[in-house]
Design goal:
single chain; alpha+beta; Aminopeptidase; five-stranded mixed beta sheet; globular
């Protein structure tokens, strides 16, 4: 790649970031779930209390990929971990090293912050991503089952004072 670089996203990058998020959702067949707005992303990433960080891959100044990540904590290890929420490279830029460079950048940030590991999730049908992660030496988590609570169930529990 000619002029490739990874930058920390700024407030000015929010439109490009939202475009890439929509591209990821389309790839994952989950576009119907995207409700993020530029305003919501600005608040979450650059507001009073940021909850995640974003980096962007650029080729000749053009944004071609992103990663969003945030710290988590291992009570067993007594140290921080890093959770990679999303990593996406536009289709025309795949298989040129951008994804690996984004992933490695997040790993360097995590290591510099004393993290013991990185975690993420991947859709079971996404063979290109599964192969990419295996190629990095990552292993699937077999003993745990992921859950999430959302919608009315989440709202109901959040009101429960019992």
């Amino acid at each position: 790649m000619s002029d490739f670089r990874i930058d920390t996203a700024t407030d000015a990058d929010v439109p490009a970031l939202l475009r890439l998020i929509r591209g990821l959702a389309e790839y994952e067949r989950l576009s119907h779930l995207v409700v993020a707005t530029e305003e919501a992303l600005r608040a979450a990433l650059f507001g009073h209390r940021p909850v995640a960080e974003a980096i962007l891959a650029r080729v000749d100044g053009e944004v071609v990929g992103f990663a969003v990540f945030f710290p988590s904590f291992s009570t067993f290890a007594g140290r921080p971990n890093m959770y990679l929420e999303d990593l996406y490279v536009e289709p025309q830029w795949r298989r040129r090293g951008a994804g690996r460079k984004l992933f490695a950048h997040v790993a360097r940030v995590a290591a510099a912050r004393g993290c013991g590991q990185m975690s993420w999730s991947v859709l079971h049908w996404n063979e290109p991503a599964l192969n990419f992660y295996r190629g990095l030496g990552a292993a699937p988590v077999k003993d745990w089952v992921g859950y999430h609570l959302s919608g009315e169930s989440f709202r109901r529990l959040a009101k429960d004072e019992g």
